[in-house]
Amino acid sequence: MSIARMQKVLIASYSTEAADVLEALQSSGMMQIHDAERAIVSKEWPELHTEKEKPKQIEELSAKIDAAVEFLAQYAPKRSLTQALAPRAVVSEENYTSTVRGDAAMKMLEQCTELSGKLAKQRDSQEQLNSQLAMLLPWQELDINLSDLENFEKGAVILGLIPTKNFIAAQEKIKEFKAAIETAGKKDGHISCVVIGLKENAAEIYKALRSVEFEAVNLSQFKGTPAELIKNAQKQLDETQQRIAELQEQARQMSKDRLQIGMLADYYKNLLGREQTRLAVPETEQTVLFEGWVKKHDLKKIKNILSGFSGTSISLISPAEDEEIPVHIENSRILKPFEVITRMYGMPQYVEVDPTILLAPFFAIFFALCLGDAGAGLILIAISAFFIKKLQGDKSLLYLLAICGVLTIGTGAMTGGWFGSGLREVAIAHNIKWLSGFIDRTMWFDPLKDPMKFFAIAVGLGYFQIMLGLLIGFIDCMRRKEYAAAVFDKLVWLLLINSFALFGAAKMGHIPAAIGSGAIKFAILPAVGILLFSQREGGWGGRIGMGSYQLFSSVFYLGYILSYLRLMALGISSAGVAMAINEIAKTATKLPYVGLVVAGVILVFGHIFLTTASSALGSFVHTMRLQFVEYFPKFLVGGGKEFAPLSKQYKYVYIKDDHQSSKK
Question: Which domains, ranges and CATH numbers included, belong to the chain?
């Protein structure tokens, strides 16, 4: 439940075994490796160099495999919902190793590439034939060899399309040039025309035709009559389409074994990542240097891995003075789902605290108050459990929603919300006394009838969280020995705000007036501290000016606390939505014949998609906002760079070890 301690190391390996060392490090997934540009050893020893060449052969092969995967995916059977949620196949390590090292997968890759090329060629031919037919079809009634149109000694033949509405006008336009115009067919509101005139008048004829939207067509590349050409092109097109269908069927058959290509894709992606790392690190003629970070508790494991290499050693080194240390947060199983929220905000800095444990209870409780219906909590748990069981990959968000669903049952019971008041009404209507009694006993208040209790809960939680944030900030500054910041940025605000709170409580009669009077007098002390020392740089004029502004901004804390009223607003609105769904369903029961069916559909879909899904989205967003805007800034700066070790990544398979566990 903290930020993992990091250790910087330098691994020196003979070039003959450096590739094997790097593969072992990648398989362990425990070391973040710096390239030569970021490595300290490159700055200390300028004579070190890196390989300039890129792993072009592996890059090209990886790209070829990716193209094959995409090609086969087009012809693979459509996935079911279960397959869509779990797209990666679980394979044994033995199967994976034999596939990527054997010849069968590579032969299949070549066959796939060849098949893809043939299909592309046939499709190009199909496109050309379709284009050819589109040009010729308007002229199919023209009974003349198109190659003869260029052979007239004195005459000029112009082919083209003209809008039907302009045909008569075209005839009139070319009369003065003693030209004739004949129709050869129709297409999309246009008439295909053959215009014949003297060559010496061709330019004037064409100019006249353009004035009536004449579009010239050049068919000089064709030899034969249009009808013959169309027949021949159609025959070729049919043959091409038949060939495409045959090739597509081959692709469909090949797609059944596409997992082999997927294994190759994963293998070569990891190999490419390893080679890119290998070529980017500093080295001498005989030695390759891997500089980077490991978690301190993984240091022993790294040393054990490297002990199997006789020409490799590991040394602990100190980071540069201004070097940024990568951050990795580690939490228990129950808290790990809440890392989703931390990562959305951004990683804390290495010297800060991991906020996950500090936000977890607040996030879960706030979400539960916003959603506020036990029935919605049950639905949320059921949906989360379904996807946890079916979905591959990181399930942290689903576990987070399941935990929030459990707490929502509690807040729903507290406010009497079981699908609105629907479950209680059903229990009363059917005389299920134990159920109605349970709902009544667990209900503390009705948020629609007694909203002030909800108001008090929301404001109280907001006040507590903001004070806790300041206290955490104070403790963290003290831990880092930043004593001035601890006192004048955190402690003075704790004292000032709580003094005002005691004064307000005394005014409302909740505590003795003497305590309130003493608190407001005591508030002068932290107020002076804010005025004089909240700004600790520059001249006293500027410092007091900024201190005055900071002191005035104390009124903002009231706004911070009141922003927690969104917990009440969302909780009441969720209850209102559930009640509205129930009322609509009641009205639907009055429909003849289908009333009960319609009411059931309204209840099921309404409570799943409105009471639960829609309200859960709003609850998640607003609860997250309270953490990011009101809570975190009190103690967290953020902006840390996440620890990113070199590791093997798999897109298409899960590799199963001998103990039947899966790893990415």
Answer: 144-224 (3.30.70.2750), 336-452+563-634 (no CATH), 461-559 (no CATH)
